[in-house]
Specification:
single chain, mainly alpha, 77 residues
Length: 77
């Protein structure tokens, strides 16, 4: 397994553990940004838009439309 794949798998583990410390939106934004950076995506404007929109869209679909609660941090944020 290549180093990039191992790094990505480790980042997923950190992402899941991150739900305990920060809320879904922040940890998802960081994960999307890291995944895009790791895959070589470098268009800054598209990068910023995707990082901001994707987690918010997923949050909206699950929390508002489907009424499925997403993980909260230990701080209740």
């Amino acid at each position: 397994v290549g180093g990039r794949a191992v790094l990505y798998m480790a980042s997923i583990a950190v992402y899941i553990a991150g739900f305990s410390y920060v809320d879904y939106l922040l940890s998802s934004m960081l994960m999307v940004a890291f995944g895009m950076w790791l895959s070589g995506f470098r268009n800054r404007i598209a990068f910023a838009c995707i990082v901001a929109i994707m987690p918010a869209l997923i949050y909206y679909v699950f929390s508002v439309v489907m009424e499925i609660p997403l993980p909260e941090s230990v701080f209740g944020i």
